[in-house]
Design brief:
Keywords: TPR repeat. InterPro entries: ETO1-like, TPR-like_helical_dom_sf, TPR_rpt. It is built from 16 helices and no strands. It is mainly alpha-helical. It has a domain of 82 residues: Tetratricopeptide repeat domain (Serine Threonine Protein Phosphatase 5, Tetratricopeptide repeat).
């Protein structure tokens, strides 16, 4: 934020200043105001940043699905303007994501491939998603492997690749995620679910307990409470329910689980 504020103060032109003001407004949650700044800047001079900002702001400020067509046009306009390789790659990656959301998978793949040609490595993840949506899990897995090879020690890439393979490879990838970043929650939840499926209830609960030790969020507490209920540990289930409800007293699923378990208490 301080960098944007400094850039605004040092802006060499009015259209640049408007873009920086627009990003500041966007980053502080004022999407519609940011959108207007982008439009004002475009009225003065067409530029990559102004079109890019307008596309971002419109996507966030308009719930209407039909706005996707306008976002696509704005990103295409941005790509016709001069910019550096990094920003072009981001625009292509974003355009691919919009195409995916619209179900235009071939168009999305073209965007991701173009982004990869200018070395925007994150596009491997988008292309993997396209392969997966086309029911080609093998290609999706291979695409994520390319990302992992380029972005070493990337826990999120291993986590994403785990979605595109069989159970044993998934477990191996999620083990690597925990090794690289022990504070990512999803691997613990997955392992706990697998252990419950294998009727290893105690180990499943222990796996969740490891995650709750550093992030006691509602989803983890709800899952552990349900596991406690499953094995007949009423006291353990009630503790988790009450802990979760102290965070969100209006969480309907937790209220229902608490009431059900509470009725079992002697």
């Amino acid at each position: 934020m301080r960098s944007l504020q400094l850039a605004r103060e040092l802006a060499a032109s009015e259209h640049d200043r408007l873009v920086y003001e627009g990003w500041i407004l966007y980053d502080t949650g004022h999407c519609e105001e940011g959108l207007r700044k982008a439009e004002d800047s475009i009225a003065i001079q067409r530029s990559f940043e102004a079109f890019f900002l307008k596309a971002y702001a419109l996507a966030d400020s308009s719930p209407d699905p039909s706005s996707s067509a306008t976002v696509i046009l704005l990103l295409e306009d941005a790509l016709t303007c001069p910019s550096d390789r990094l920003r072009k790659g981001q625009a292509l990656n974003n355009l691919g994501s919009v195409y995916v959301d619209c179900g235009k998978l071939d168009h999305a793949a073209d965007c991701y491939i173009s982004a990869l040609k200018i070395q925007h490595t994150r596009a491997h993840q988008g292309l993997a998603r396209v392969h997966f949506l086309k029911n080609n899990r093998t290609s999706a897995y291979e695409e994520m492997t390319k990302l992992i090879e380029k972005a070493r020690n990337n826990a999120s890439a291993y986590e994403k690749r785990s979605e595109y393979c069989d159970r044993e490879l998934t477990k191996a990838d999620l083990h690597m995620v925990t090794k690289l970043d022990p504070l990512r929650v999803y691997p613990y939840r997955y392992r706990a679910a697998v252990l419950m499926d294998s009727h290893k209830e105690g180990e499943a609960i222990a796996e969740l307990t490891r995650a709750i030790a550093f992030k006691a969020d509602l989803h983890l507490l709800h899952l552990r409470a349900a596991f406690h209920e499953h094995i007949g540990d009423v006291a353990g289930a009630l503790r988790d329910c009450r802990a979760a409800l102290s965070v969100d007293p209006n969480h309907q699923e937790m209220i229902e689980l608490h009431n059900r378990v509470n009725s079992q208490e002697p």
